[in-house]
Amino acid sequence: MLANGSLTVGGREGEIRRRIVEADLVDGIIALPARLFYSTAIPVCLWLLARDKASGRDRRGKVLMIDARDMGAMLDRTHLALRPEELAEIAGIYHAWRGAPVSEGMSQKPYADVPGRCCAVDLPTLAEHEFILAPTRHVRPAEAANAAPDFAEQFAALRRDLLDQIDRAAALDREIADALARVEVP
C-alpha cells in the first residue's frame, strides 16, 4: 500500500498482477491489434501462463513480450483478421521461446529478441515497471524500419524535382507557343 492507503498502480488488479508475475506463472504476453474480435473494437492482450517454465528452453524468471498490433488485414469496415503467415510468425516466436518442437519439415530457429516484434523481459525489470505487462512498454521499436529520412536530404531531393518540373514546364510552354505560331488562320 502507498502512504495514502491506496494500493499500488492498478489497485487490486495491480496487486493480483504483481503476485502472478512474482510467482513466475506468466510465460508470455501477446499484444494483438484492435478490431480483431467481434465483441470489442479495442486491442487486447493474450496472457500465456505456464507452471513449468524449465521444460524445453529454461524460461524461469523471464516473460516473453510480443507486439503484434501492426499485424492483420481488414475483413470489412469494422473487423480485422490475422493472416496465416502472421499467425505462423507469432506461433514461431513462441515455439522458439519455449524451445518446443515444431511441425515436421519446419526448421526451428533459436529464440532471439526482434526489435519491433518481441523481447524477453526479466522479473526485476517488470518490477521496475510496476508489473505492467504491456508489450508496448518493453519491445523496442524497429529503428531501421521506423527511421525518418533525413530532412535536409529529403528537402534537397524535392527541390531538385520541383526545379526540373519548372524547367520542363517552361520547355513545354515554348513548344506550345511555337506550334501556335505555325498555325495558319484562314
Automatic annotation (TrEMBL):
Keyword Methyltransferase: yes
GO molecular function: DNA binding; N-methyltransferase activity
Coiled coil: none
Domain DNA methylase adenine-specific, chain residue ranges per copy: 2-144
A GO BP entry: methylation
Tagged with keyword Lipid metabolism: no
Protein family: Belongs to the N(4)/N(6)-methyltransferase family.
Annotated protein name in UniProt: N-6 DNA methylase
Species annotation: Nannocystis pusilla
